[in-house]
Every structure is written in structure tokens, then in C-alpha cells.
Design goal:
Blueprint lengths: L13 H32 L6 H26 L8 H18 L1 H25 L5 H23 L8 H21 L1
Helix pairs in contact: 1-2, 1-3, 1-4, 1-6, 2-5, 3-4, 4-5, 4-6
């Protein structure tokens, strides 16, 4: 199968599909890094950098920085225009991370669950439309998806679901994440 095979009239051209994948994934990984940076800053403010949650968040942040670096290289190498919304994701990501960490360790982990569940769905959809002609990009997306699922699982094991208002908090974060994904593919 090739990327875009079986597309309908009016659907994106294969090149446009690939550009959107790279653009939105770079934006998403940038946003994820900023969320973790916000969480780590809040933990520093609270004197909890070396807590169990702090160590887990720092490890997740390292993975997200590796993901972002990969998509930064793809953006440049494939000459794909980044989203114009990066300044907003810069501030919004940091604010979301700081706010959830200030709510407590479990709320910070609930944020991770919400983000990673949304990204799991997003990456699965991308892997399904990338053809054999984009096998390397598909493999990258699938590898990163597995790492995001591991982050979600670790956050769940850390008590994320014990956050007061867990369902409301995670649904709000998922809705915002889905909107950010939709906007970043287009703008």
C-alpha cells in the first residue's frame, strides 16, 4: 500500500498528508516538552524536584525531547513548514504542566494520562494511513506511540485516577489536545 492509496476526490495529496503528519507531530512533541517543563518548574517551586513524581516526570521529559528532536529533523529535512501556532503551544503547554503539578503529583500524572491517550489514538490513525513508501516515518510514529503508551501506563500506576475530579480534568485536557492537533495540522 502507498500513502494516500484509495483516497477520494478532494482528499489531500500524499505529500500534503505527510507534511501534516510531520507538522502536527513536531508541534505535539514541542507541546509535550513544554508541559513537562511546566510540571518540573512547579515541582521546583514546591521543593519536590527529587520526589518520585519529579523523577518520573524528568524521565518522561527526556523521551519527549528525543521525540521533538526527531520531528525537528524531519521538519527541516523534508522542508515542511512548522505550525504558526508554536508560540501559543509554548505558553499553553507550560501553563498546563505547571497548573496540574501545582494541583499535586496525581494531577500531574492525570495530565500525562489524558495527553498520552489522545496521542495514542492520533499516532494509531497516522500509522494506518502511512503506506510502505513512508515505512520509515510510519516506524517512527509506531515507536513513539509505544513510548507514549508506556508513559500513560506509568502515570496510571502512579495513581493518576485518584486525582479529585479525574474524569473532568482528563476530558478537558483531551478536548484541548484534540483541538490543538486539529489546528496544528492546518495552521
Amino acid at each position: 500500500m502507498k500513502t494516500g492509496e484509495g483516497r477520494d476526490p478532494g482528499d489531500l495529496e500524499p505529500r500534503q498528508m505527510v507534511e501534516r503528519v510531520i507538522r502536527v507531530d513536531q508541534a505535539g512533541e514541542f507541546g509535550a516538552v513544554r508541559i513537562y517543563e511546566g510540571q518540573l518548574a512547579a515541582l521546583r517551586w514546591k521543593g519536590r524536584t527529587n520526589s518520585e513524581a519529579g523523577r518520573k516526570i524528568a524521565a518522561m521529559a527526556r523521551t519527549e525531547r528525543e521525540h521533538r528532536a526527531t520531528f525537528d529533523r524531519l521538519l527541516t529535512g523534508r522542508r515542511v513548514r512548522p505550525t504558526a501556532l508554536s508560540p501559543i503551544w509554548n505558553l499553553a503547554g507550560f501553563a498546563l504542566g505547571a497548573a496540574t503539578a501545582l494541583m499535586g503529583d496525581k494531577a500531574a500524572m492525570a495530565c500525562t494520562v489524558a495527553i498520552e491517550e489522545t496521542i495514542d489514538e492520533h499516532y494509531a490513525g497516522q500509522a494506518a494511513v502511512l503506506g510502505d513508501d513512508e515505512a520509515e516515518l510510519r516506524a517512527t510514529v509506531e515507536k513513539f506511540r509505544a513510548e507514549e503508551i508506556a508513559h500513560r501506563d506509568e502515570a496510571l500506576a502512579s495513581g493518576a485516577e485518584q486525582t479529585p475530579g479525574y474524569e473532568l480534568l482528563t476530558q478537558a485536557i483531551k478536548t484541548g489536545s484534540r483541538l490543538a492537533i486539529w489546528l496544528s495540522t492546518r495552521i
